[in-house]
Structures are given as structure tokens and as C-alpha cells.
């Protein structure tokens, strides 16, 4: 039995029936050529047959009781009921993406069973176009979304002919992480961190360790976390922005809506090149344009600009969660898309300056303590705190090459995130081969017609392409 | 806004992620002749189209807050998101009953969203044999299982040619119940109550009102309910039996398993006639025989006999819940099936005598207060109380004639009940036309191989048929 770090445990402490704190992913696969009608059922049978060894991480079960002095700890489940975790489902006819998103929204809304290891894996048959889907779900206390996606990828292969592949629960991601010899180069930075790291250089490297220490020392409970946070905000470390209240910043209910779409990476790269910005800037500008349209359509566009929190992966800290964040002004009050992109770009640079003048511990406090999880509305009572941002926009680095699973080609992979009290909408971006995949996760009640955001994202990209053409 | 009776509210108060307190039902339908592949999708579209008026009861939403002084109350949801409540699902191939029970077990394990009216209705396509299924789910705070099944039936018809039928959420069952003029004959007693009423005569008629009063006066909280219960047990009203601890009497987890099967009513009636018992006696003997085999297979058959609590419907009390209970010795320690049936029969008669010597208020206290919900393990801390029974076996009276829905013939209808802390297994029996349908609902962990109980029920009936043949 191992005591859980506070950073992991808080995702259990803060969870409620209205706020499940698991992350998910949706993968779409082409059925291999010549696959019979029982292809997926056979695959399912093989996965639950008991031939697959379950890695220790995926046997871990959360527990607390007298023996742990009431603290959350990890224990090992020696009798994992694999048929509970690995499930076969089907879409109703005609099996369009619409039916798939409907099912995945439902699956993502239900809680994981705390009496078992905190993950599920759903094979879904009946997707039109001779495809099938996989929805997987893992508790944030086990690992954050970036790590979960990375781990899912590891279970895929670039080789279309590989078979009898080990599923993700047969592979323990931890040894590879923790056994890196001293002096060996750390893995390349990822996601928003790519640019963040430019901003802050080596400073961020020590952040994980520090944030971990902060988390541990805050073990006494949410009240202290809240006041620590207030101290940070009220004194030196005032947040750079104040986010305006919007319809997206309300308490949430227990039901979810998820929508997702792929965009050709080339279109985004073309805008980036012609406007002298980064892919991240363009993705944020797409999100900003879409949010502006959405809020206008609901007559709720505030005069002040929306603020996004961008999670960054910190150096490995022994916890499954290594999240910090930076804040970016989305300039949603700017009607001109060219100006909006410029302001977003400038805001990113300002974040750089803001971080540069500070010592590593301050950066860690700003990014790790402020933004995740307190700013995320996880801590009860923290919502009373002045809102620092309107939504979280994550960038999860994805695989560069086309991947396969048991001969089935991965057609698309979409991250599904965690709406929170006060943050009813989440946008997560993920690259895969020559696509940019965007997953939008929201509370079903607070974010009506969430799927319209997909169209608005496309509209925003078209606008940016016009800006790029004008610049050229 | 209307304050909820304590009897209804306790199902919300006691609910947790491990203990959802909704009841369910599974209906199997034959697709009408000539129905095309889109029959169910079209039906679904029609049901969620907005043309269907939602009855006030199914717009009710549970709430509590400052305005209700922290008590649970009913408020009206003026903006019901019907697509959330009425869902279309599908079975993976080959769509056997096995796949259906797997899906229904999952659906039954997830919590209803308290931000919405507490019901769901799932159309399920892809059931082999050209069939489809309906799983519906309603919170116990809204109505008990008997009432829910009755209400579902009302939305069906004996006429195979009827179309454009009002679904159950378009019909409010309450006016019919509450507007019965004084002096008009009460509806015929139902289920176990049929026999219970023989035992206690008119006494039971006033029980509902009294139990309601008890519930209301207990509004102060579970602690007082527990001590009231202890008072009852320790003083005059000691329970007639003490149930032995078994593997079924343990805390439960968040996952469920459900299994169901139909038996020809004729077989049960033949045993009843030849042994001079009642259908209820035979159903209890089947359950007892099955439980004996199951516990033997798990090396957990206690020396002392298992005790079953049999809910009885009480007179209407204005609450959606009108449950009392009697206790019956299942004689599971008796190896001889003939002797076992005899003892079960005698135990039923003893229950009659036990009730007969008491005044109506005492009967109400025994049946309503003792058995439901305190004895049901709903009240936190009540599990420390000496266990009065091992499981609940319910008898839900079903329709006598074959029923149809939009031209689809109802093939089978199975009640799905609520496993509780300390009562990990529930058996519910329901008659329909010339069948006896048995639904077995259990905790997925505490009741391994729950589906084996179906085979054991059949074995027990075969044994009883041998007893009947010997008697003849």
C-alpha cells in the first residue's frame, strides 16, 4: 500500500456525482481488410480471456480507511474482474459519428467504480464506413490526460501487420519514466510546454518537484489550499488577467456532451507560416473565434476578453499528474480576426515575460498551484475565488505517424476532458499524423448545442486563412 | 414546490455512488411483422420529437437548498431535455440475451442525474430473434417498483393494432390514485399482499397512513430512525427470526449484475395444486432451493435458515412509496425439498398469526418501519443493527393478458431491483400472461456468477415438481 500524493488524491477528494474527474479518449479505427463480422467480438473475447497480464499500475485500487488514517492510498487488486473493465458495445443504426458521440457522451458522464481499478476500455462496433471505435476512460488520480493519451499510443504500432499486441493495461508506463539514469536526456517537452519551455528555459525543470512538495505540505485539506491560494493571488502573484463571467462559468450537472472533428494540419501550418505565428497561436485563435461566435449566438459575449488556461506538462515528479498552466488572453472582444490573432500572440509573449522575471519556485506556484487544480474548480469553496480564467484549452501532443492496432488503422484520436464547476467547457487539441484533432467536452446543460462549436471552429479557421492570404 | 415525504426523501438521502436507489424494468418485444430496419430509430425519433406532452410527475425534479430549509422537495422542470431521458442503444452482435443482460446490468449500475427528472427510458435494438428491448429506470423517491411496473403496463395495450400510443411519461398516474372518492372500493390487493391481506384483514388498510406519519415524524434524521428501530426490536416487537450472516449480507460496490428468465405459470400452478400450497409458497420454495444450491456452490450455506423479507403494498398514502414487509423463514438448511416447502408454508402462516394478534399501528410499525427502509440497509449506520433478514424477495403483480406497444408484442417483462448494503441480492417475481418472470439483481462483486441462480431456480422447480408428483 502506498499513500497517494495530494496532487493525485485531490481528484478523488473533489469528485462528486456531478463532477466525475476522469479523462477519456475516443479512437476511430478502420476495420482491417477482410475482417469478418465477428472481428471485434473476437478481439474482445481475446482481451478478456485472462491471457493478458494486467500491469501493476492498472491493478491499483484507491482506498482509504482506518489503516490509512483516512488518507487516500493505492492498494493492489489481486482479483481484477477484467470483463468489467473491458466492454463490448454497439451503435444503433445507422452508426454515424452522431450516434457515436451520443454514446461516448453518455459513457463519459458516468462515474468509475471506486471499488475497482479506476479505468474502463470500451470497444464499439457498428460505426459506419466499415469502422469501429474505442472509448477509454481513466481516473485523473491515476494519470493526467497527456499521460493517458501517451500511454494509449504506446499500445499501438506503426506496423499494420503486427498482431497479438499488448493492450494498454498490460503495459506499465512507470518503470520507463522513473528508471531513466541520471544525466540521460529528459524526453522532449510536449504540447504547449514546447513554447512554454522556450519562455522559461530550465526554470521549469525543477517545478515538478517543488509543486509536489507544495501538494504534500497542503495535505491538511482544501481549506488551507484555498487560503494559500488567496495568499498567492492577493500578494505578489496577482493573476495577469481577470476573466469575465460567462454562461460557461457556472456550476455543472452530471451529464456531458462531447463533440470532435479532424482538421488537416496543412491548413493550420499554412496560416502559421503566412502570419508569422505558431501552431499553438493558430489553434488558440481558432478556439477564440469559435467561442466568440458561440457566445454571440447565445447573446452572452462579454465586453472583456475571455481568458484561457493552458495546461503545461511539468518535469516528472513521481505523481501521475504533472500539470502546471499559463494564462492567455483570447481577445474574444476583438471583432477583427487578424487583430485577434495578434493579441493572442502578444498575450503568449507577455506570459513569457511574466514568467521570466521570476524564480523557479514562483513559476511553479503560479503554474502548478494556481491553475491546477485550485483554479480548476476542484476544491470545494474555491469557486468563490475570483475567476482567473474562463476555460481550459489543452494541447496534447499526439503521434506523428499513422498507427495500427491489430491490423486496424487508427483513423482519428480525440481527447475527452473534464468539465468542472465554473468551467463547463473544455477544448482539447491533439495532433495525429497529418491531422489536428479537436475534442470539445462540456456540461450538457450549461453548454447547449455544444456540437455547433465544431462548425464555429471551421468558420474561425476559414477567417484565419483569409487573414493569411491577405498577409501573403 | 412541494416538500417530499420522508419516506420518499430517504431514498435520496441514503443514495450514494455505491448504492443507487432506482428501480428498473426490462421489457422484451417482438418487432411487428413487416417492420423495416429503421422501425426502432423512427419510434425513438417520434418519442423525442417534442410532440409528446410530458406529464407533471415526470417533470418533477428533486431539489433542496436554502429555500427548502435543506429538506428535499419536488420542483417542476419546465425545460425537460427529452433526448437525455429517452435514448436509443444497440446490442453488439450476436445480440443474445447474454449481451442484453450485460448492457442492462451496466445501465442499471449508473446513477440518475439529480439535476433532471429522475427517470430514463432506453430503446435497445439488435436483440436476436427479430426483437427489441426497453430498459427503463425510475428513482425510488418517485415511486416504488410495484407502482413503476404498474405504470409501465398502463402505457401498453391489449390491442395489437393500436398506434401513436402515449408513452409512460405522458401519463400521470397520480390523479387516478388520489381522486378516488371516499367510500369507493380500493383497488384489489396485489402481490404478496394478496395473501397478507388474508392474514391481517382490514388492519392493513390504515397502515399506510400511520407509516406515513411515522416517516414524517422521523424527519429529523437517520440517527433517530435508527434508535426508533432499536427500540422496536429490543422491546415488544422483537423480530420473529434472526437471519444468519451469509456472503450475500455484506457492503456492496457500485456495479450490478442482472439476470432474468421466464417460467410457464402452468408448471408453478401444477405444483401449487398438488401440494396444497399457494403460488407464493411455490415461488418462495423455488427461491429457497436456488439459494441453497448457490450458497452450497460457494461453500457458504449457513446452518441456520435464511430469512426473506417480502414487501407488501400498503394502502395509498400520498407517497410514491407504499411498502411494508413480512418476514418468512426460507428453510434453506432443510435438504429435503418437500420438507422445505412445508416449512416455508408454515412460516407464512406463522407470520399471519404474528400479525393477527397485534393492533394496526403495531402491524404498520413492524411492516413499514422495520422492513422498509431501515431494515433495507438504506440508513447509514443501520447495518450495525442485528440483521433481520438475508434478502428481499418481491412479488410484483403483472398483466394477465398479452400486451402490445405500437404493434410490437410484449414478449417478457422483468423487474430490476435495488441491491443494498447488507442485502447484495434481490429476487423479484412477476407474472405476465401465462408466464412467471423472475429477475435477479445483485452486486457484481458480492454475488459472483449471479446468472447461475437462473439454472438453480429451474433445478429447484424440477425438485418441487417431483414432490408434487409424489404427493399426487
UniProtKB/TrEMBL annotation, chains A, B:
Gene Ontology biological process terms, A to Z: biological process involved in interaction with host; glycerol metabolic process; response to hypoxia; response to nitric oxide; triglyceride biosynthetic process
Domain O-acyltransferase WSD1-like N-terminal: 5-283
Taxonomic superkingdom: Bacteria
GO cellular component, as recorded: plasma membrane
Domain O-acyltransferase WSD1 C-terminal: 320-464
KW Amino-acid biosynthesis (keyword) present: no
Family membership: Belongs to the long-chain O-acyltransferase family.
Entry protein name: Diacylglycerol O-acyltransferase
Species this chain originates from: Actinomycetospora succinea
Lineage summary: Bacteria, Bacillati, Actinomycetota, Actinomycetes, Pseudonocardiales
